[in-house]
Amino acid sequence: MSLGYVRPARPEDAAEIARIQLATWRVAYRRLLPRDVLDGLDEVSMAERWDDAVRQPPGDTHRVLVAVEQAEQSYLVGFAASGPADAEALAPNEPADALGADVVAVTDLLVEPRWGRRGHGSRLLAASVDLWRESGFDRAVAWVFEGDQASRKFLTTAGWEPDGAGRALDVDDMLVPQLRLHVAVPTERPQVG
Question: What residues are paired with 5 via a beta bridge?
């Protein structure tokens, strides 16, 4: 296990978050998404969106957290973003109020592959759960690509399970199936030891 920690993202992290997102998608999704789509992603515009998300979140319970690896130098190695479930968290034809105000949606939870298997994903998830609990969320949802075995395994090992909802994203005329996972947010932090 590496030395690392999680902290709230800062505006100066936006470019590195975008770089991590792009690098991770190009490795993790290279067999799931069309290559020209991955190659065509613009890191600068992604960084601008992350800067907005950090500087001006839509609400108090929208969070962007970053994972930091500590060595001789500190490196940003991953990030998580979440907020109240909105229309993007819904399944097709699901009523607007289907998820409720007590549900939080994870929009991103990524660790750059070269920094994987060092506990950063678990730290990001644990820190997110603490914030969700403090904000009064009872349940969390996340969409994952059906073919993304690593993300599915990570979340199901942490107690998440499919809630029966599915959808397909139209990515450059290619339908990419996703399924929605969910988990109850524990009412208190588990005791260790």
Answer: 68
| Nearest alpha carbon to residue 89 among 114, 108, 71 | 108
pTM of the shown model:
0.91
In the chain, the number of structural domains is 1
The DSSP string of 47-76 is HHHHHHHHHS-SSTT-EEEEEEEESSSEEE
Q: How far is CA 30 from the centre of its chain?
A: 18
The CATH code of the domain that includes 105 is 3.40.630.30
In degrees and rounded to multiples of 5, residue 112 shows phi and psi of -55, 130
* pLDDT tens, position by position, 112-145: 887 677 779 999 999 999 999 999 999 999 999 9
